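Milestone 3.1: sequence recovery, worked example.
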C-alpha cells in the first residue's frame, strides 16, 4: 500500500511579517490617539494647577450636586433595567408567544434611535404643554426638567444592555433544566432562583456593568429633558460641558477625571466578568 501523503498545517494567515507588523502598529497607533491620549490629557489638565486646585473644584456645590445626581440616577435605573432585562430574557427564551419577534425589535430600539430624539419624545409626552405633563406639574410632580425626566431618559437609553447579554446565553442553555425542575414539583419562582439565576449570574452582572457605565455617561437624552439647571438637574457630563464652556477648564477636567475613574473601574470589572462569562460559555461547549 502506498503511503498517504503528508499534510502540512498552514498558518491561519499567510501575510508576510512586515504586513503583520504594520497592521499591529496601526492598531496600536489608533489606540494611542483615540484612547490613551485623551486619558492623559484629562488627568494632566485636571492637575495642571496642582492637587489643591483639583480638590477645591470638587468641593464646589454644583460639582457635588452633579456627582450626587449622576449616582442617584444610576442607582435607580440600573436595578430597574436589571429586572426588566431578566424578565424580557426569561419571556423570550422560555416561552413561545405571538409578538416575540416584535418584542426583540423593540428591545433593540434604543440602539437605533438618537438619544436626542428620545429626549424630545419625553418632553412631548410629559412636558408642561402636554395634557399629562401639565396635570403632573399642577399636582407638584413635574417630569421634565426634574429627576423623573432624567430617570426616564436614562431608562430608555440603557434598557437593552441587560436583556441583550442574557438572551443569547439563555437560548444556548435551553429549557431542559427548568422543565426538569418543574416536573419535580418546583414552583416557577423556586425554579428561577435555584436553576436559572445561578446559570446567568455572570452575564447578568456583565450587563449590569454595561448599563451602569452608559447611565453615568449619558449626555444627549438627559441634556434635552433636564433643562441643564445648575445644581439641580445637571449631571456630571452636562456639568463638565457647562464648566468648559465657561473656560473653567481645571474644574471641568477634574470632574471629567472623576467620571473617567468611574469608567476605568467599570472597565476593570467588565474585563473580569468577561473572563467569567467566557468560562461559562466554554462549559456549555462553545469556544
Amino acid at each position: 500500500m502506498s503511503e498517504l501523503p503528508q499534510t502540512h498545517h498552514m498558518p491561519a494567515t499567510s501575510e508576510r511579517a512586515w504586513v503583520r507588523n504594520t497592521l499591529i502598529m496601526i492598531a496600536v497607533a489608533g489606540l494611542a490617539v483615540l484612547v490613551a491620549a485623551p486619558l492623559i490629557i484629562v488627568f494632566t489638565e485636571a492637575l495642571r494647577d496642582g492637587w489643591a486646585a483639583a480638590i477645591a473644584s470638587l468641593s464646589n456645590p454644583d460639582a457635588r450636586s452633579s456627582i450626587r445626581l449622576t449616582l442617584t440616577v444610576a442607582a435607580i435605573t440600573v436595578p430597574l433595567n436589571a429586572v426588566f432585562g431578566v424578565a424580557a430574557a426569561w419571556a423570550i427564551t422560555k416561552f413561545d408567544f405571538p409578538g416575540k419577534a416584535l418584542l426583540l425589535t423593540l428591545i433593540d430600539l434604543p440602539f437605533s434611535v438618537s438619544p436626542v430624539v428620545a429626549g424630545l419624545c419625553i418632553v412631548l409626552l410629559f412636558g408642561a404643554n402636554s395634557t399629562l405633563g401639565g396635570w403632573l406639574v399642577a399636582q407638584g410632580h413635574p417630569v421634565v426638567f426634574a429627576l423623573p425626566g432624567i430617570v426616564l431618559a436614562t431608562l430608555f437609553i440603557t434598557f437593552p444592555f441587560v436583556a441583550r447579554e442574557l438572551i443569547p446565553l439563555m437560548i444556548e442553555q435551553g429549557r431542559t433544566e427548568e422543565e426538569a425542575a418543574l416536573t419535580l414539583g418546583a414552583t416557577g419562582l423556586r425554579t428561577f432562583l435555584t436553576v436559572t439565576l445561578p446559570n446567568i449570574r455572570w452575564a447578568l452582572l456583565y450587563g449590569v456593568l454595561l448599563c451602569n457605565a452608559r447611565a453615568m455617561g449619558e449626555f444627549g437624552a438627559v441634556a434635552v429633558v433636564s433643562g441643564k439647571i445648575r445644581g439641580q438637574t445637571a449631571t456630571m457630563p452636562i456639568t463638565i460641558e457647562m464648566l468648559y464652556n465657561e473656560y473653567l477648564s481645571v474644574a471641568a477636567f477634574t470632574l471629567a477625571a472623576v467620571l473617567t475613574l468611574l469608567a476605568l473601574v467599570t472597565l476593570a470589572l467588565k474585563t473580569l466578568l468577561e473572563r467569567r462569562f467566557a468560562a461559562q460559555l466554554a462549559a456549555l461547549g462553545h469556544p
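Residues 40 and 285 are 41 Å apart (CA to CA). DSSP finds 14 helices and no strands in the chain.
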